[in-house]
Design goal:
This protein has helices at about 20-35, 40-45, 50-85, 95-100. The chain has about 100 residues and is mainly α. The protein is rod-shaped and about 85 Å long.
Length: about 100
């Protein structure tokens, strides 16, 4: 199999997909701006395809972590409320501030 002269490095099995067309547009713009690239630049251009996919994975990971932290916060707030109710000797912060202001 011979490569076409000036061809875009292939990195997708189906070059007709939307992602592959976006990749082609990006690489063509880079080639137009930079001119003919040396052969050792091809792997770098192929790595461009992976730039969008990790962002989605990273977003999913962050969303999952956010949900876990939200649940943890709710559980800690509930625990604080239980501790406050179990110890009636301590008044809430707002009452303490009002008493201090009254003198």
């Amino acid at each position: 199999m011979r490569a076409l002269v000036g061809a875009i490095p292939r990195c997708y099995r189906d070059h007709r997909s939307k992602v592959a067309l976006d990749y082609r547009t990006l690489v063509e713009a880079k080639l137009e701006r930079l001119g003919q690239l040396p052969k050792d630049a091809s792997p770098v251009l192929r790595d461009v395809r992976g730039m969008k996919q990790p962002r989605k994975a990273e977003l999913r990971r962050l969303q999952s972590e956010s949900r876990k932290l939200r649940v943890q916060l709710l559980m800690l707030e509930r625990r604080l409320d239980e501790m406050a109710a179990a110890n009636p000797r301590h008044t809430d912060l707002a009452r303490q501030i009002l008493e201090m202001q009254r003198g």
